[in-house]
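REVIEWER CHECKLIST
Item 1: Sequence provided? yes
Item 2: Single chain? yes
Item 3: Sequence as submitted:
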Amino acid sequence: MQLLRDTPDPFSRTSVDPGHMTASAVILSPDKTQTVLVYHNRLARWLQPGGHVEPSDRDLIHTARREVLEETGIRLAGVKQVPLVGIDVHAIPATNGEPRHLHHDLTFCFALETDELLEPNDSHQATWCLLDELSHYLVDSSLRKSIGRAVHHYGCLDYPQEKR
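Item 4: Structure as written out by the authors:
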């Protein structure tokens, strides 16, 4: 992977060529029929919670947990098994003082044992989404695959196929 080979600090958000690492989370409801989506204002679309690595983060799983708390209010402290369910590289458009760059995102799965109410902060809109209603939120194929892997990992082989 060029990013890790050629970048002095691939975890720094200021590393823009060829980008930097980010971490995100697929969160499954206790019955594995729903996932949490967060509306990303800059990209104008629904995504899984996630974001940049902070210097205080111990590892990328910690980054994903912190981002979930910040964006949804869900505390993931008790969730122990955290499988990697996706790797995605995607372009982030240029904005004020930040050039176009790539996010090299690792997506981890957190399956909740109890129902959690969402408490998004003022800058994030979050919702529980039924897995068979992902098309209503225009969820892209990469995230759909990560969600499918998460559901399959937990033995739920009847992952709902949406009507197209």
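Item 5: Key structural point noted by reviewer: The first strand starts at residue 20 and ends at 28.
Item 6: Recommendation: ____
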